[in-house]
Design goal:
By secondary structure, this protein is α/β, with parallel strands linked by helices. The chain folds into 2 domains: 149 residues, Ankyrin repeat-containing domain (Serine Threonine Protein Phosphatase 5, Tetratricopeptide repeat, Alpha Horseshoe), CATH 1.25.40; 285 residues, Rossmann fold (3-Layer(aba) Sandwich). The longest helix has 20 residues. It is elongated and about 95 Å long. The relative contact order is 0.08. Bound molecules: S-adenosylmethionine. Pfam families: Ank_2, Methyltransf_16.
Length: 477
Amino acid sequence: MTNAATPSPSAPSDEEVGQAILDAARYGDVEDLQELTNTYGKNQLGFRGGYGGNTALHFACANGHVDCVAWLIDQGVEGCAANESGNSPLHWAVQNQHEAVVRLLLEKVENVDVLARNAFGKSVLTEGFAGKSQGILKLLLEHPSADEDALMGGEGQGQCHEGSDGGEVLKAGLQSEKKANKASGGGGEATVIHRLVLDRENDPDRVLQIRELAIEHADDPFGKAAADDTTGLGVWPAALVLAQWLVQERKELLDASTIVELGCGCAVPALAAALHGRPRALHLTDLNSETLMNARANLAMNRENFLVPETAACVHVSAMDWGDEQSYPPSAVGAVDLVLGSDLVYQKSLAPLLAQVLCRLMKPGGRFLYVAPATGRDGLEDFLKGLLDRAGLFQVSEKEAGPELLGNPLEGGGGSKEARVPRRRKRRRTALIKCFFCTLMNWPRRRLCINSTNMSSNNLCEITEARRQVDLIRVLS
Ligand SMILES: C[S@@+](CC[C@H](N)C(=O)[O-])C[C@H]1O[C@@H](n2cnc3c(N)ncnc32)[C@H](O)[C@@H]1O
């Protein structure tokens, strides 16, 4: 950068010029910036002022001034310069969710690195996962610096990379993401991050972030083998009902207990347990490898917000095949206080497998909370009957989900009122819920669509390992 003009003897100091440049960038005033550089030259365009060592580019990015960012880059300012907290201008653009600025930086700045971490260990990509913007996340994931090799910890172009702590999770996320985008033709609709408020009345600020991906091989999502079943890449309505049931009505089951979620998919109920309770041990289990990667990514997105920080150390994501006892988490065998499950039985062959899992995992007095659609699930009746047949081992109670559990949990959905189902006007409201959820949850876009599934037709099933007479209750409205 060169001086365009020689300042007069009464010219302001470099610091004063630099400060004026920072102010102009903060307010996005390109004309002011041009005038300042025409008069005093470009030397102070990289000025770092005030607290924190921020540059003009930081301020323009943080405030979403696209024209100003473009102008600064054209003048040759350093695009990756980090401030004293290690945040680059890209960090700030992502943290403040300015998609157009993020796009510009990724296109124009040389050597930009979405895996560069700030002093708090957070990469730009991590910030992208934490934010609400799908567009920003997609831009970051598609950038060459998010290449899988780079995520493995190879040499990079920017500052530092995700190491062994976050790298695996992000790599998992990336692989899932890329496959999902491929599955959807790269249209960007394959990934959704939901922000869910599960107990609006008592804990309205507690938000669970859940990423769901396009269900792969949509023509045959169940696959040939159990491990090929990709239905867990999506969030099923039963999972939302179970999560709300758990935190609104069964919170006491969460504390100091060993919990296993079976076929966890996106892990909404299990992570809800960690967000609202104090489990002693929490196992997120599934079989499909893509689903497990996504569950890990969802764990990573929420672990900083668990009710108690100690929970983060006792959550395990593991591959578990109901048909293979060797795969059951050893520490969970015969030790589980609470088993969670939603929409797990949809083929007759699954019924005996699940019953076997419950027998092996639950300890005497343990409990299995299960939510399933009221109709359209092959094998569900066999499953319940199978439990009843087990020599009085299980006590089963079944009821229809009440309106209190059918609230729309999406943050900002205002769900409690519109989406609940007051008994008097049930029919009309039920129809409303279907539309509401379909729109907000992107369900119509998902390739797999089981029409009989919706929030309002999920039954709750409570199964206690009682070692006494079976008690089956059907509460029909
Ligand atoms: C319809 S999805 C439900 C996912 C999640 N519970 C929900 O409600 O969103 C069924 C889940 O069961 C898992 N699953 C199916 N067969 C399994 C098996 N043999 N062992 C372990 N998990 C299995 C699938 O991988 C899938 O995640």
